[in-house]
From TrEMBL:
SUPFAM superfamilies: Nucleotidyltransferase (SSF81301). Residues 201-221 are annotated as: Disordered. It comes from the Bacteria. It holds the Pfam family RelA_SpoT. It comes from Jonesia denitrificans (strain ATCC 14870 / DSM 20603 / BCRC 15368 / CIP 55.134 / JCM 11481 / NBRC 15587 / NCTC 10816 / Prevot 55134). Residues 52-175 form the RelA/SpoT domain. InterPro entries: GTP_Pyrophosphokinase, NT_sf, RelA_SpoT. GO terms for biological process: guanosine tetraphosphate metabolic process. This is RelA/SpoT domain protein.
């Protein structure tokens, strides 16, 4: 009986994983369409790169245990909102909001929560837009809503966040004070860079079409 239970659980978890993979695919398709249409309309590509991941079973169970969530697929589906993650890196701050608005206003996307860490950065300097969305995945049995965490940020914010993430893990969360202060300074520098790049971009675009001749090729990488 225990063996049958274990087998059922394994099947349930692999279904959970698969549904989240499908949801990531759906979001990636939406992002790719937005990107290509944006390029067609405005002659520039607002998205630098897109990455995605589905949490491994190990890290799902680790987080579930830490949070005291029941080890049932149903409870996990309801309470763990970052099993599927898509990260969109944009060139400019204005683009991050534009992409967020366009994505979250699509009729099949249900917004669960939006966190604007660009307007309200975390105390350590972390900046990004986070959207927790439910997206329908069409299975043989019908549509199933699946939750995806979408993070949207600029290249400078992404650069900062990936270094901070490495430092945080290296020190197991107990980052020395001088590094925390340095990271705060670096976050300020990243913000300044974002502002200056945006100003430059606006200025140059205001002076007519500056599309580089190979801009469409960027999408084919
Ligand atoms: P990983 O390894 O990227 O998956 P929660 O995820 O709900 O426990 P919270 O704070 O309620 O945490 O949600 P929030 O703020 O939306 O953060 C979720 C994710 O945003 C994190 O996932 C990170 O990817 C990113 N993030 C949030 N804060 C920071 C930060 O200070 N530095 C960096 N580098 N990334 C951050 P995970 O699961 O924590 O990490």
């Amino acid at each position: 009986e225990l063996l049958a239970f274990a087998r059922d659980m394994r099947r349930e978890f692999s279904r959970l994983h698969m549904e989240h993979e499908f949801a990531v695919d759906e979001v990636l398709t939406k992002v790719s369409i937005l990107q290509r249409e944006f390029l067609h309309l405005h002659q520039y590509n607002p998205i630098e790169h897109v990455t995605s991941r589905v949490k491994s079973l190990d890290s799902i169970l680790h987080k579930v245990t830490k949070r005291g969530i029941d080890w049932t697929p149903q409870a996990i589906r309801t309470h763990l909102t970052d099993i599927a993650g898509v990260r969109i890196t944009c060139s400019f701050i204005a683009d991050t909001y534009r992409i967020l608005d366009t994505l979250t206003s699509q009729t099949d996307v249900k917004v669960r929560e939006i966190k604007d860490y660009i307007a309200n950065p975390k105390p350590n300097g972390y900046k990004s837009l986070h959207a927790i969305i439910d997206i329908p995945v069409f299975l043989s049995t019908g549509p199933v809503p699946v939750t995806v965490e979408v993070q949207i940020r600029t290249i400078a914010m992404d650069f900062w966040a990936s270094l901070e993430h490495k430092i945080y893990y290296k020190y197991n969360g107990a980052v020395p004070d001088h590094l925390i202060a340095d990271l705060c300074d670096a976050a300020d520098a990243a913000e300044q860079l974002d502002r200056r790049m945006e100003q430059l971009h606006t200025e140059v675009r205001g002076n007519g079409d500056t599309t580089p001749p190979d801009s469409t090729e960027e999408l084919e990488e």
